[in-house]
């Protein structure tokens, strides 16, 4: 007996018999019991650590008549851990927004059009990007029907179509580990450059506004800012990692349905009677559910992608303008190195965001034509 949970607006539970030879399947009520979440666990541990993810402990919301014991389901995990994680995430989001509001006070009444003004705009746009990315991830955790809960629920529903394909989530393992390591390396380099710049160049004191940079507590102020900067950098890097891995999952789902449909058509005899036996309704529902999975991913990352394009394009143009027209930037080895690193990171952020979307679009369009 297999239990299938529909994700309709009036979500209900339907039991459907698949025969005694079919292995029993337990639909998961908690994202932490989901096979995909298990493979992505190293990433989500980093997201939890830096306060941009928390688990609600409920995977199928608004199913009041669901009896987990009677329907042989895995019970949702609720308790103190979920509450602490959500409080911690809320605290981090508030700190990031307060820090962004603080940075708005750094502009003087009359600003001159020079590299000092650009030096103020660069960290401001970077903080806007990081804060929006963290907020986007937080909102995705708060949603019941959509967001991360909806994505894991829809992915779990797709597993009924994977029977007989011999697929698993093991393909994600080396990608997850390598991308998490890359995220940490980016964080370390980012914070190291910022910390070195704050202690060796007075231009970085603008990040401490409106505090007195000549006071006795200047080192304490710098240390506190570096901690906040670490959280901002983590929100930026690990949100990008999450976006890449989710796009990889979507890419795999489209590859599975395309490959399965192609093999079914190619292996059937070339006559009308055999073609009538092709389960087109199954593939239609499969493709529809994959599209719903894309919708859930879009609900999570759409605002993040918009923030990346708006802020990264502006930062890239500002850095290029400073490097080309201000010799004072290139004459200082520290400033030149930091600006080139910022330019590379902004340009890489734009390129990766485009590549993620192109990767999914390619398998949807080109591979489908080959079918």
What does this structure look like?
It is a single chain. With 371 residues, the chain is mostly helical. The chain has one domain (30-56, 80-370). Helix content is 67%, strand content 2%. It contains 11 helices and 2 strands. It has a two-stranded antiparallel sheet. Helix 3 (80-103) packs antiparallel against helix 4 (115-142) and helix 5 (147-158) packs across helix 9 (280-325). The longest helix is centred in the middle third of the chain and has 50 residues, at 218-267. It is elongated and about 80 Å long. Mean pLDDT is 78; it is low at 1-29 and 58-79.
Task: Describe the secondary-structure layout.
Elements (H helix, E strand, L loop, with lengths): L1 E4 L7 E4 L18 H5 L1 H9 L30 H24 L11 H28 L4 H12 L14 H28 L17 H50 L4 H5 L3 H46 L1 H5 L1 H38 L1
Antiparallel strand pairs: 1-2
